[in-house]
Specification:
This protein has helices at 3-13, 25-30, 42-45, 47-60, 74-77, 86-101, 125-142, 155-168, 195-205, 218-231, 260-273, 286-297; strands at 18-19, 64-65, 106-111, 146-152, 172-177, 180-181, 187-188, 209-213, 238-242, 248-250, 253-255, 277-280. By secondary structure, it is α/β, with parallel strands linked by helices. Bound molecules: zinc ion (ZN).
Amino acid sequence: MKANAVRLLDWLAAGNILVSDGAWGTQLQAAGLQPGECPELWNLEHRSKVLAVAQAYVAAGSEVIGTNSFGASRLKLGMYDLADRTVAINAAAAAISREAAGSQGWVLGSMGPTGRILLLGDTSEQEVTDAYSEQALALASGGADVACIETMSAIDEAVPAIRAVRENTSLAVACTFTFNKTSGGEFRTMMGVSPADMARAMLDAGADIIGTNCGNGFEAMIEIVQQIRTVAPRPIPVLVHANAGTPYREQDHDVYPDTPSAMGERAPDLAAAGADIIGGCCGTTPEHIAAICAALKALSPAANP
Ligand SMILES: [Zn+2]
């Protein structure tokens, strides 16, 4: 495993809580990304604007920074006729975040769903494995430390993704699932997976870091992390990228209700519930990350010798 990835896992095992980044899509839209445009192509065509997003998060206190590569598997880029640029787009994504993070920061190479459903026969396990392997190798070549397989809902897609990274790269592997509360009050993914089932299956498949992203604000994430912790106690590292609350619709757009200070106030409770890496997903901004960072640093042993 890459030395910087080992350093990250050691740092987490020692009980440190790390702050991650927030949403990228909305930041890129604010910088001019148009609806229907491929966000990841910006790594090649608007590099300085993508770098500015990463730098804004690092300036806000992100010690762990993602990459603009969520939809950059060959299978997703194919929808924009960009499959032949997969390697260049991912290598650039990682290089941009590495430039912002510096040598001491940690870069999590984002890998979202392929958009195909194995259960429906949309793709094969081999095609999924090949796509994630190619993407992870390119992210590693650009300077990523960790492959962050995120927004997962199906175990049969996440397992080959984890194996593809482990068998073909020297990256550490993080895998996070998206849960929603059912009418019965339980957390399940779109494919019916519970937080505890996710944790067991991802650890069996070889994930170094497990967790949850999107779908929920801190309130619900606290419950989800408690459920993950029933089967995956510390020091297994848990990552949470939470939305800025549950959105509601206003005219033609979603409004995320949780303010930076609201998220900052709840961040210590999320850490106490068992989250080790804490950051944002939809609706979060550098201001949210700065508030989370301030709240968590006030707790850390270094701040209270
Ligand atoms: Zn999200």
